[in-house]
Every structure is written in C-alpha cells, then in structure tokens.
Amino acid sequence: MFIQITKEKFIKQKDIIGIFDLDTATISGVTKNFLSASEKKNKTVGINILPKSFVLTGDKNSKDYKIYFSANMTGHIYKSGLGGKS
User: What are phi and psi for residue 8, nearest 5 degrees?
Assistant: First the structure.
C-alpha cells in the first residue's frame, strides 16, 4: 500500500518509520539537531510551501533513511493510508 505525503509523492507504507508534526516534534532540541544534520547530509526532501509535518522513511534495519517534508498535517497523511483501513 502507498501513502500520499505530498501532491506528487507517494511512499510505500512498509518504508515509513514515523510521521511527525513539525510544531510538536521540533520542541525537542534533539529533533531539531536531527533534522539539521539530516539536511546537511542531503537526507531531506523539501517542499516549496511551509511544511506542517515530516515523514521519516527507510530501512528499519539499517541507518539509511530519508525525510520528506509535507504540507499535509500528520492526521491527513495517516488517514490517507495507515488509518484508512477500518
């Protein structure tokens, strides 16, 4: 199953490690540092408008990951795939 995280980007559900709200997740300095370090390592995919959330993807058994920023709120992303199963 694929999850739509932006208008053009779909991610395989099995590749999603976490979906995070930028307002609450970035309260922690640890998260801010992680996002900043990830950006320096070219591990982030940005968008042209103000992001509301980010999706951490990758292989759960390795250190290879990618962060996708999204204008969608976490609940919308969750409902588009993960929570869409009733």
Answer: -110, -10
